[in-house]
Every structure is written in structure tokens, then in C-alpha cells.
UniProtKB/TrEMBL annotation:
The keyword Signal applies. GO terms for molecular function: antioxidant activity; oxidoreductase activity. Keywords: Signal. The lineage of its organism: Bacteria, Pseudomonadati, Candidatus Cloacimonadota, Candidatus Cloacimonadia, Candidatus Cloacimonadales. Residues 16-160 form the Thioredoxin domain. The keyword Chaperone does not apply. Residues 1-19 form the signal peptide. InterPro entries: AhpC/TSA, Thioredoxin-like_sf, Thioredoxin_domain, Thioredoxin_ResA/DsbE_sf. This is Thiol-disulfide oxidoreductase (ResA) putative signal peptide. Pfam families: AhpC-TSA (PF00578).
Length: 163
């Protein structure tokens, strides 16, 4: 009886460990150049936000994410559009018109989104510099960016406002 329980516990531990890592990916940016997860890691925390052009909460979150990107030089903010291929020009034009400080990638086939269980945008992930997912949030409500910032400051080794 102990052996099956030990095997089950080991399997659970392995699956939890694997679930905490961002899957490797290669997605095109606005110019068509492929960007990999490895290219984004190493400098510092990475905030990845899945969005779509039709999503008003996604657009409401963008100015707050832009502010975080400007405030923390070692933070990389990546916006991944899950718009269908026919809607990509509209999504690209929207971001271009805003001049945000983001890396913009496109997952129109939703390959990465499916791996992460992203079904409705916005869905935000914060990664440490090795690619471990340290925080995940679905949706956007004003003020959630403060929670993002707390995790980012923690990853950067900075005191949070509560300390």
C-alpha cells in the first residue's frame, strides 16, 4: 500500500513542478520575426499578458502594464494576441497607435494559450528570470496592477510598500 501512495505523491510533485514552468515557445512579433521564451528570460521578471482586440478589459489593463514596463527597466512585458489571423491587422494597428513599451507576439492558432489553459483574455502570468510561473491572474479589474507590482518587486529583491 505504501508503494502506490509514494508513486502517486511523486507523480503529483512532478506534475506540480512542470505546471509551474512556462512552456517553451516560438511566436512571431509584429514584423514576423520569431521570438522564443529563452530570448525573453534572464534579464529579470517577465510579465506575459494574453489579450485580444475585441477585449475591453484587455485594453483597460494596457496603460497600467505600460506604466510597470516604464517603471522597472529589468521587467519585460510581453503582450500575446490570441486574435484570429483575419483580425491581426486590427490588433497590430491598435498597439501601434498607442506606442506602448511592450514586446508584442501573436498566437493566432492559440498553441501556447491552449498549453496554458488560457480561454478568455486577459490572462496574465508573471515569470521569474528562469521561466517559472510565480503568479497567474485571469481578468482585469482596476487595482490588480498593484498586485502585479508586488510580485515584480519581490522578484527584483525590492521592498514592497507593505514592508
Amino acid at each position: 500500500m505504501k508503494k502506490p501512495i509514494a508513486c502517486l505523491l511523486l507523480l503529483l510533485l512532478v506534475s506540480f513542478a512542470m505546471a509551474d514552468m512556462m512552456p517553451d515557445f516560438k511566436l512571431p512579433d509584429a514584423t514576423g520575426k520569431n521570438v522564443t521564451l529563452q530570448e525573453l528570460l534572464g534579464k529579470g521578471p517577465v510579465l506575459i499578458d494574453f489579450w485580444a482586440d475585441y477585449c475591453k478589459p484587455c485594453k483597460d489593463a494596457m496603460p497600467q502594464l505600460h506604466t510597470l514596463a516604464e517603471k522597472y527597466d529589468s521587467l519585460t512585458v510581453v503582450m500575446i494576441s490570441i486574435d484570429a489571423p483575419k483580425n491581426l491587422p486590427k490588433a497590430k494597428n491598435y498597439l501601434k497607435s498607442k506606442n506602448y513599451k511592450f514586446i508584442t507576439l501573436f498566437d493566432s492558432e492559440k498553441t501556447l494559450a491552449k498549453k496554458l489553459g488560457v480561454t478568455n483574455p486577459p490572462h496574465t502570468f508573471i515569470l521569474n528570470k528562469t521561466g517559472e510561473i510565480v503568479y497567474s491572474h485571469i481578468g482585469y479589474e482596476p487595482g490588480v496592477e498593484n498586485e502585479y507590482e508586488m510580485h515584480i518587486r519581490n522578484l527584483l529583491g525590492l521592498k514592497t510598500d507593505a514592508e
